[in-house]
Amino acid sequence: MSKFTQYPDGYLDKTPILQFILLSCLFPLWGAAASLNDILITQFKSVFTLSDFASALVQSAFYGGYFLIAIPASLVIKKTSYKIAILIGLTLYIVGCSMFYPASHMATYTMFLAAIFSIAIGLSFLETSANTYSSMIGHKDYATLRLNISQTFYPIGAIAGILLGKYLIFQDGASLEQQMATMNAEQIHAFKLSMLEHTLQPYKYIIFVLIAVTVLFLIIPFPKCKVTNMENTRETSFIDTLKYLARNSAFKKGIVAQFLYVGMQVAVWSFTIRLALSLSDMNERDASNFMVYSFIGFFIGKFVANFLMTKFNSNAVLMWYSVLGAITLGYTAFVNDFSAVYAAIFASVLFGPCWATIYASVLDTVEQEYREVGGAVVVMSIIGAAVIPAIHGFVSDKVGSLQLAFIVPLLCFVYVGYYFFDKMKTDKK
Q1: Whole-angstrom distance, CA of residue 348 vs CA of residue 296
Q2: Position 177 in a domain
Q3: Residues 410, 107 contacting (CB under 8 angstroms)
Q4: Residues of the chain with pLDDT under 50
Q5: Residue 392 lies in a domain
Q6: What tens digit of pLDDT does each residue of 276-333 get?
Q7: Residue 3 lies in a domain
Q8: What is the DSSP string of 53-115?
Q9: Is residue 91 part of a domain?
Q10: What residues make up the domain containing 307?
């Protein structure tokens, strides 16, 4: 590590390539876990006979873990290092995946939610550390670019998660509801137990990958990327940091935008498979293909946006992405044929660059001595993914139309567009 010089503000003079690649490989690991939730929502909806609101609690358990653990994770980073926090996150992720062993046999919805929550605790450590670390492991001028590159790995993991769910959780044949319609009560009970046992399979493979990644992080040295110039920075208490962030209006606007962005993204992805099932007679395995297309679109959208942001003002690019996204989700909500599913897929293309760009721009409004906790609060805004899908499900139950409920993420996209428009005007001033 000696050939890389660390500046007093924590940034490096150049990016250590091996370490940056390994750090970026963490992003698909939480991408796989997040996309598997979209599979589980569909599976649990039928097996446990849940309402749309109740099935969305999978996301509430998952992203609620992020909300509760982000601040403790930031304090661990502040006291130790990004690498230590990453190793803790990987260990907890392994523990969470292991909980699917008892959950798949106990066959209760509560136990599955507990396992999902446990995974989220580990992922909160990973995201709180990896997002900020990725932006800092190199020259400051390229912080946003590095984070966007790392985020580009996310849809690779998301696609892998959907494929694992498609082939290891969903089965061939008619849809679950159609199969159970021909069974008696005893057969339905046995069938449901069998379906729940399949939910364990993807997590067994993920555990092996996590063990390998943990070993690599243990043996490979990483730069600290922590502030060293104590003459220009002061030691701040946790309470002082929260007071500073509460006074920072640009930071608060960004938190709201990130809350709504993550919420609408997860809401659309949570219900895309269900939307395809409601507008056709296909089974769950075939319907899951549309999530694969969504994540491919998400991946492409990131590349296109990264290119456009090198040519044009990044806020203007994302504002127009948001305008198109709102129109697209309007089509999804109000056009009552199967083309609405393809509109939902196109919305994923427009989600691409938002998270990393909002994250980096929000973090840029925070002074260096407040950065670890500031980054954790941005990660806490992921709680939007626990709230917005639940609202989507609640609206669906109330109006009796899963499709019409897509107006919920539509309204979120409108605010995200306003955020980038306002930021564009502020930057010009």
Answers
A1: 9
A2: yes
A3: no
A4: 1-2, 230-231
A5: yes
A6: 999 988 888 899 999 999 989 988 888 888 788 778 888 888 899 999 999 999 999 9
A7: no
A8: HHHTHHHHHHHHHHHHHHHHHHHHHHHS-HHHHHHHHHHHHHHHHHTHHHHHHH--HHHHHHH
A9: yes
A10: 17-223+237-428
